[in-house]
């Protein structure tokens, strides 16, 4: 995934691009809830290193640290706003990330 044009701006489109290791292709996963001492919300899938059905945000490594968001049929980066369109989770059954 690549922030289009390497522009760190609100509603900037995301697209697929060849890997070049720029900040506009680097992302962090930040779980929406705090990590409890004793995991109860779900186990970690060892193949994907993601907790099963535990909500998380995908955060751009660019300076503004905007969140991956869905607007209509487009994937964009946006300032955190608390909307469900910015929350993602790993589905163990399909082995995919869903919003």
Model description:
- There is one protein chain.
- The protein has strands at 2-3, 12-15, 27-31, 44-45, 50-51, 56-60, 67-71, 74-78, 89-91, 96-98.
- With 99 residues, it is mainly β.
- It is built from no helices and 10 strands.
- It has one domain: Trefoil (Acidic Fibroblast Growth Factor, subunit A), CATH 2.80.10.
- Strand 7 and strand 8 form a beta hairpin.
- The strands form 4 sheets. The protein has a 4-stranded antiparallel beta sheet, with no helix packed on it. Strands 3-6 form a two-stranded antiparallel sheet. Strands 4-5 form a two-stranded antiparallel sheet.
- 18% of the residues are buried.
Supply the helix-strand structural class: mainly beta
Count the domains: 1
- Strand tally is 10
Strand order of the largest sheet: 1-2-8-7
Order of helices and strands: EEEEEEEEEE
The helical percent reads under 10%
CATH architectural category? Trefoil
> Overall mean pLDDT score?
87
Gap between N and C termini, in Å?
A: 16 Å
CATH class: Mainly Beta
> Which fold does the CATH topology refer to?
Trefoil (Acidic Fibroblast Growth Factor, subunit A)
Number of helices: 0
Return Rg in Å: 14 Å
What fraction strand? 35-45%
């Amino acid at each position: 995934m690549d922030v289009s044009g390497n522009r760190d701006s609100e509603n900037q489109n995301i697209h697929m691009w060849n890997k070049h290791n720029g900040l506009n292709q680097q992302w962090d996963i930040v779980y929406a809830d705090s990590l409890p001492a004793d995991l109860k919300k779900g186990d970690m899938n060892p193949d994907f290193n993601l907790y099963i059905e535990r909500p998380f945000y995908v955060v751009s490594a660019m300076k503004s640290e905007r969140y991956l968001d869905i607007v209509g049929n487009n994937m964009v980066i946006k300032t955190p706003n608390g909307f469900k369109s910015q929350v993602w989770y790993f589905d163990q059954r399909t082995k995919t990330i869903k919003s």
